[in-house]
Each structure stands twice: as structure tokens, then as C-alpha cells.
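for the recovery benchmark. C-alpha cells below, seq after
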């Protein structure tokens, strides 16, 4: 059974803090961080308009999802930043709740090695149906510390899904069953004009740019090969020997950076 990433105690603590806020300000707080409002029946609501409003936003949250937890934590960051100096004691109580949940409040940010292991906020792309990529992001974030092999396998799946998503957005066809990551990446590079031979030779630093673009394929191929050796899939059990969280973080960091770059390139080309 999945555990809540933000405890009930912490959630209620922040909910009580908001009883002094205006209803409109509470709405803006959650909507600014893409937390959806869900109407609830009266019997499911706590006493008070403000508590009830917060409860309706809470109702849309999957508390075991790293993506949803990060959205709520971002809202909590705004709450802590806006806390008046005369309420410092109450603010420190909220921070203590967060610490008991495994978080730290540093320089206006609520940080967590597990939740912040990947570039969660860079995955959504306007104009491209990429919401399903969060399935892989959530799986990666939930396993990077506890099951490195699963995190590596999920990163490979994220790359493959990202490549197919971009090709779908560009109206390009591919063999969903036969085309592997290297072939899909070459096709995406061509469509996005990221292939080394498409670089304008008149540009400054052309050779360096070509080298970096060539290495995109090496990153994707390396992750796919590592997944075959150690990652989940192909009948391999979890917790492969020799792998630790630091290995998974290296793979996840490289893989998510590649995905973010390709998605942002797609968005840039479609907004020009």
C-alpha cells in the first residue's frame, strides 16, 4: 500500500493556518500551483468556509503521488513565505510538521531528496499531450532511493514515451513495437532539426554543437543498455546487486535532462 507523502497532521496544520486568509486568496494559492477544486457534499466538509474550501482542493490530491505532493508543497512554500513576522511561532510549528514528514525548509523552499531527484516541473509542455509522462516521473521519484533498478527501468521507459509523444505531436509515424530508442531518437532529432548534420556550419562553435548533439544518442543508448543489465524488466528481480541510489540518480538526471531538452525544443519550434 502506498504511503502518504504529506501526513494528515501536516495537511491539517496548514489548513488551520489558512482560516485567517480570504476565500479569494486561498483560491489563488492553490490555483497558482495547478491544484484542482473538487466540489464535496456538505457531510464531507469540516466546519468553516475556509476549512471547507481547502478541503475541496485537497480532495483532488493523490497524497502518494510525488507530482501531486510537489504541487501542494509549492503552495505551502507560498504560505510560509507570506507568514507575518509576529506569527513566527506558528510558522515554526508548520516547519516542524514538515520535518517529521522528511522535508527541510531552506531559503524559502521545501526540499526533499526523493521528490526533487528529477526535473518534475519541466515535463509538461503546452501544445503537446505529455500529461501521461507523469506516470513514469511518479514511479521514478517513488523508487529512486528504495529501488534503484526500478528507477533506471522507468527512466528508460520515460525516454521512449517522450520520443513517441514528440513524434505523435509532429504527425510522424513509427513502429510502436519494433522501433527502439536509438531509432526513435534519430527520427526525433531529424524532425526537430537536432541531427548533427543539420547544424549550420556557419555558426560559431559548430563542431562543439555537433559533438553535443551526437552525444544525445549516447546518453539514450547508455540508459537503455544499463536498464537491460540492471534495470527492471526482462524478468529481472528488484534490488539488483551493485546498484545504489547514487547510480540511479545519475541515470535519472541524465535521462530527465534529455527528455526536458527535447520537449522544450519541440515547444520552442512550435512557438516560433
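predicted aa per position
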Amino acid at each position: 500500500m502506498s504511503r502518504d507523502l504529506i501526513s494528515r497532521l501536516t495537511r491539517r496544520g496548514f489548513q488551520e493556518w489558512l482560516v485567517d486568509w480570504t476565500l479569494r486568496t486561498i483560491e489563488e494559492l492553490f490555483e497558482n500551483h495547478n491544484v484542482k477544486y473538487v466540489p464535496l457534499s456538505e457531510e464531507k466538509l469540516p466546519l468553516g468556509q475556509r476549512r471547507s474550501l481547502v478541503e475541496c482542493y485537497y480532495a483532488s490530491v493523490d497524497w502518494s503521488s510525488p507530482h501531486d505532493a510537489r504541487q501542494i508543497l509549492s503552495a505551502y512554500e507560498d504560505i510560509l513565505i507570506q507568514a507575518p513576522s509576529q506569527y513566527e511561532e506558528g510558522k515554526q510549528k508548520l516547519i516542524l510538521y514538515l520535518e517529521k514528514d522528511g522535508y527541510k525548509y531552506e531559503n524559502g523552499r521545501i526540499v526533499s531528496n526523493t521528490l526533487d531527484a528529477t526535473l518534475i516541473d519541466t515535463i509538461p509542455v503546452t501544445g503537446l499531450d505529455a500529461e501521461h509522462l507523469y506516470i513514469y516521473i511518479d514511479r521514478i521519484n517513488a523508487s529512486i532511493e528504495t529501488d534503484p533498478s526500478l528507477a533506471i527501468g522507468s527512466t528508460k521507459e520515460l525516454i521512449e514515451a517522450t520520443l513517441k509523444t514528440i513524434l505523435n505531436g509532429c504527425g510522424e509515424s513509427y513502429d510502436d513495437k519494433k522501433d527502439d530508442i536509438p531509432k526513435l531518437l534519430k527520427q526525433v532529432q531529424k524532425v526537430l532539426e537536432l541531427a548533427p548534420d543539420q547544424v549550420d556550419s556557419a555558426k560559431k562553435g559548430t563542431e562543439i554543437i555537433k559533438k553535443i548533439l551526437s552525444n544525445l544518442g549516447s546518453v539514450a543508448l547508455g540508459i537503455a543498455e544499463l536498464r537491460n543489465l540492471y534495470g527492471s524488466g526482462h524478468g529481472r528481480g528488484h534490488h539488483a546487486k551493485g546498484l545504489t541510489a547514487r547510480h540511479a540518480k545519475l541515470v535519472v538526471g541524465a535521462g530527465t535532462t534529455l527528455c526536458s531538452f527535447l520537449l522544450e525544443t519541440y515547444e520552442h519550434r512550435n512557438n516560433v
